[in-house]
Amino acid sequence: MASEALVQAITRQEWMDPVADLLQGAVSGAVEKTGATGQAVADALHGTWLGHPLHPALTDVPVGAWTAAAALDAIAAARNSEAVDQCATGAIAIGLVGALGAAAAGLMDWRHISHQQPRRLGLTHGLLNIGAALLYGTSLIARRRGARGVGRGLAFLGYATAGLSAYLGGHLVFEHHLGVDHATEQKPPQEWTWVMAESDLPEGEPRRVDVGDARILLLRRGDQILAIGEKCTHLGGPLAEGKLEGDSIVCPWHGSRFSLEDGHVINGPAVFPERCIETRVRDGQIEVRAGGRGESCQHHRAQPAPVESEAREMLMTGS
Ligand code: FES
After folding, report:
1. Is residue 310 part of a domain?
2. How many CA atoms lie less than 13 Å away from 297 in the CB half-sphere?
3. What is the rounded CA–CA span in Å between residue 66 and residue 164?
4. How many folded domains does the chain comprise?
5. Quick one: which atom of ligand 1 is closest to the CA of 112?
6. Ligand 1 mutation target, pool 28, 114, 245, 253, most atoms within 8 A of CB
7. What is the mean pLDDT for each group of 10 consecutive residues in the chain (319 residues)?
8. Same structural domain for residues 210 and 156?
C-alpha cells in the first residue's frame, strides 16, 4: 500500500536523527532551565491536569476549522459569494490559532520519544504541520489582497498536507502506541493474593512483584505497606527502579511522579494514573488485590502494640 510505503520511507531517513537530537535537547533544556514554571507548562501541555493527552484534543480545532473552511471555499467558489469566502477566511484563522496550541502540545510529547522510527515519523508529522500552517497563512495573505482563487488553491494544498500529517499522527498512536496508557493491559488480581513474606520487604526500598501479568510496586513506609502499579503509564518505565520522593515515586525514564498513596499523577509527562493496589498482612505474609485507578485504597497499616494495662486486660478477658 502507498501509505505503508510512505511510512517505511520516512522511517529510513537517518538524516533526521541529528535534527531530532537537537530539537529534543533544546525543548527539554528549556523545560529544565525554567524549573517549576517549565514543569508546570510542560504538564499543562501534556494534559496531566486533564487525565488525558492534550495534543489529540487540540488537533480537533485546526482539523475541524480547516474542514469547515474547505466546505465554505467550495460553496463560495460555486456561488461566487464574497460573504461565504470571508467565513472561510475566518475558519482558516481559527484553525491557525488552534494549530499553534496543538503544535506546542505535540512538541512537548514528542521530546520524550527515543525510538528511531516513531521519532522520525513524529518529526515528519511536525514538519508537515508547519507546511500546512504556512500554506494556510499564505492563503490568508492572498485573500486579503483580493486573490481569492489563489487563496483557495493554497488552502486546498494546506488541507491535503494537514490530512497527510494527520495520517502519520494516527499511525503514531495505533502502531507505536504513543499517547496511550501503557499500563492498561495490567490486570492485578481481584481477590487477595499472596506476593511475599512481610519480613522480605525492607523499609523504604521499592520492590517489584509480578502477579500473573501485573507488575506491582510495593513499599514499606513506617507501619504501612503501600502499593501501586509498577509499569509507568507514560511509556512503560520500571517504577521500582525510580527515585522515592516523600510519598511518591519518580519514573527513571522521563521523570513522571506518582503518588504511592493512590497512584495519581503528581508530575507528567504521564497523564494516566497508576492503579492503586490494596495490601494486607496475614500470618506475616503480604497479600494484594486490585484497587481503583488514581483513587485512595486500603493499605496495610500495622496495629500499634497494646500498652501494658491493655495487654493485661486482654489476657484477663481472653480477648
Ligand atoms: S516511561 Fe516516561 S515517565 Fe515513565
Report:
1. no
2. 25
3. 14
4. 2
5. 2
6. 253
7. 87 94 94 91 93 93 95 92 92 95 94 93 95 96 92 95 94 91 87 92 93 92 91 95 93 95 92 93 92 75 64 57
8. no
